[in-house]
Amino acid sequence: MKKFIKSNIYPFVFNKVNGRLSPNGFRRIYYNHIRKCGGTSINKALIRSLGGDETTYEKLAKNVFNKINLPKGGLVGWNTAAINRSSFFYAFSHEPLHKLRIETDTFTICSLREPVDRVISHFRMLKDMVAEGSTHIDTKNEQDFAYGDFDNFLENITREHLEAQLFNFSGNYDVTEALSKLQTSINYIQDFSSVDKDLSLILGREFSLDIDYQHLRKSKTKFEPSEKELNKLRDMLTDEINFYEQAQAYFYKR
Question: Per-residue pLDDT tens for 212-222?
Answer without folding.
Answer: 888 877 788 98
